[in-house]
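User: ok so my PI wants both of these folded by tonight, can you help

Assistant: No problem, let's get them done. Here's the first:
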Amino acid sequence: MKRTIQLLSMIALVITLFSTGPLLAQGKVDVNKADVKGLMSLKGIGEVKAKAIVKYRQMKGPFTKPEDLTGVPGIGGKIVQQNKAYISVGNIDMHK
């Protein structure tokens, strides 16, 4: 039974890594492209905050710098600072 649980845990880990791998290129999460699960890989970002980031992004448009995340309800400067090295804002076309 213990081996089965360990095997299932390993499978879940591998699936998670493969599904978030493209979003974590070079160890960074592109907050303009990441889905809820990808955003949840950031420290201090659970499902509720990740959904708030996606909603904010859909309503206000792309983030231009990591600090823009502080405009999302529930995301403060401390969370941004903890994750700054892991946040990417991708390539943004500012002329749209």
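One down. Here's the second:
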Amino acid sequence: MKKYDALYIFTGVSKDDALNEKLEKALAEVTRLEGVVASVDSLGKRVFARALSKKDAGVYVKVRFELDPSKIAELVNRYRLVDDVFRVQILAVDERREAKIASERAARAERIAKKEAAAVAAE
């Protein structure tokens, strides 16, 4: 199992209920292929730079999931058949990069905490 980030674009969604229904159908494809959904983050409605297939805006949703790498092609092919998903982009997560970013965030938080402690002690 490998981690992936997917960016879904759904069009024609006017209510949150309709978005949730379409998102559940899209994520059901991941679980059907024995994958595990780790997180879902709705990025909101955005206007396209230019009209795509006579559509001018869509709701963007970022999803992190784990799936066997050999099943990614099948997943992408399945999304081509599903009308609910307007576009999808799937990228593999680089574990080393994620670990480095996490350690940099922790170091930055530690430096900020030390500065604040020094400022409080100086007063």
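Residues 94-123 form one domain. The mean pLDDT is 89. Good luck tonight!
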